[in-house]
Design goal:
By secondary structure, the protein is of the alpha+beta class. Helices cover about 30% and strands about 15% of the residues.
Length: about 180
């Protein structure tokens, strides 16, 4: 009964009492240090489980922020946790998904533009173009289409080579040779 549930205090009519939420560790002690109890035993003790009460999310990882909403009583007497999902605006998407990584790429390629860089002029020019593409990136993104950091099409570092489809598939079990884009 404890796996992925929170609990609330209920009265004799099965209505919620107060706003407190009881987690699985506390209900374990309330129910005489057992997790092997029925819904009837839980109700008799004055508690009810909340359906959909545990939701895995990390705000900052996607284009949607999630927070707990109301706990509602269903027609069958059970309770369900409602969730509030709010899409973040373009400025927040830019901050979360672009700025830190873009800054990292720019800082890590600063050396390529220094007068004492060991790179030849042609390679320096390639890096200058790459760095400009990084700077221009925010203006070239349709932010309404961005749902996470993986949706950003980053410029490729000069000299980087995309591995052959068979090598990519062998290195990552989630990639098959058929799933690699061969259009380049």
């Amino acid at each position: 009964m404890l796996e992925h549930t929170t609990y609330i205090k209920i009265d004799a009519n099965g209505d919620r009492v107060g706003d407190s939420i009881i987690d699985k560790n506390n209900i374990f002690h309330i129910m005489d240090q057992t997790s092997d109890f029925t819904d009837e035993e839980l109700t008799a003790a004055g508690y009810a489980s909340v359906i959909d009460s545990i939701r895995a999310y990390n705000n900052g990882d996607s284009a949607v922020d999630i927070e707990p909403g109301d706990i509602i009583k269903n027609a069958d007497g059970t309770f369900t946790q409602q969730w509030i999902e709010t899409e973040i605006d373009a400025a927040e998407k830019r901050l979360r998904f672009l700025e830190v990584t873009r800054g990292f790429y720019l800082v890590n390629s600063d050396w390529t533009q220094m007068s004492d860089s060991p790179l030849n002029d042609a390679t320096k020019a390639l890096y200058a173009t790459y760095r400009q593409e990084l700077r221009d990136l925010p203006a070239n993104i349709t932010w309404s289409e961005i749902k996470g950091a993986d949706d950003i099409d980053w410029p490729v570092v000069p000299g980087a080579v995309e591995p052959a489809a068979s090598i990519a598939a062998a290195a990552n079990t989630f990639i098959t040779e058929d799933s690699v884009d061969h259009s380049d």
